[in-house]
Specification:
single chain; globular; mainly alpha
Length: about 230
């Protein structure tokens, strides 16, 4: 993220404003393809999660540039191979295709599903307050990172940092509550905690990378907020 010539109002970005409108059925197919991308990421991720630098390795296997998993200045999602619809038509750019969106959505899908599985097998022995707080921390982390991606798309890097800070706070809440969970089967509980921590720490690493890139943008354009 060091290209000083980056301007989100120039270049390929303008091409997307002239794309034709899609019908509801076309967008429905597009969202199905997006879900398949999420599932594909999770499949690759789960096979590599125990390896060092697995986030970058997964990014390569997903067809992303190694910097895409953070937030490159030239926003190279624009340059990746375009998603093809069933009818062979190239899909327009949306945030659903952004690597940070795909990674965050996929890992949170795992966190939500794992939590649901844990509750089903908890035999109603957990505190309702802890259950609510844990689920709330997941929601707050996810919604704030999605808002941060939207802010970056609009060039509001300071706002993106604020949302990312909220997401990181939510992650800390999730980790704290993870230690308060109880279960009669100690092995089951520790296995659950282990898998959750892997995903949560990866989310934190990803967001710290993105936040660093946003800070670089803010420093590079210090007068933007004064204009």
């Amino acid at each position: 993220m060091s290209d000083s010539n980056f301007d989100p109002s120039e270049g390929d970005w303008e091409d997307y404003s002239s794309e034709p409108n899609w019908s509801e059925s076309q967008w429905r197919n597009y969202l199905k393809n997006s879900d398949r991308d999420t599932a594909r990421f999770l499949s690759i991720y789960n096979s590599l999660k125990d390896k060092p630098n697995h986030l970058d390795e997964v990014a390569v296997l997903m067809g992303w540039d190694t910097d895409d998993i953070a937030m490159t200045e030239d926003f190279s999602i624009v340059e990746t191979e375009e998603m093809e619809q069933p009818d062979g038509e190239s899909a327009p750019y949306t945030l659903h295709r952004h690597p940070v969106f795909v990674v965050s959505r996929a890992l949170y899908r795992y966190l939500h599903q794992s939590w649901e599985h844990f509750m089903v097998h908890s035999q109603s022995r957990m505190s309702p307050q802890v259950c609510w707080k844990y689920a709330k921390s997941l929601h707050q982390g996810e919604i704030n990172v999605l808002l941060s991606i939207q802010a970056i798309d609009l060039g509001d890097f300071g706002l993106a940092i604020c949302h990312l800070k909220n997401s990181l706070s939510a992650i800390n809440e999730t980790l704290g509550l993870l230690n308060k969970l109880t279960h009669p089967n100690t092995e089951f509980l520790e296995a659950f905690r282990h898998e959750i921590r892997i995903r949560v720490f990866d989310l934190r690493e990803l967001w710290i990378r993105v936040m660093g890139d946003c800070r670089s943008e803010c420093q590079r354009r210090p007068n933007d907020s004064e204009e």
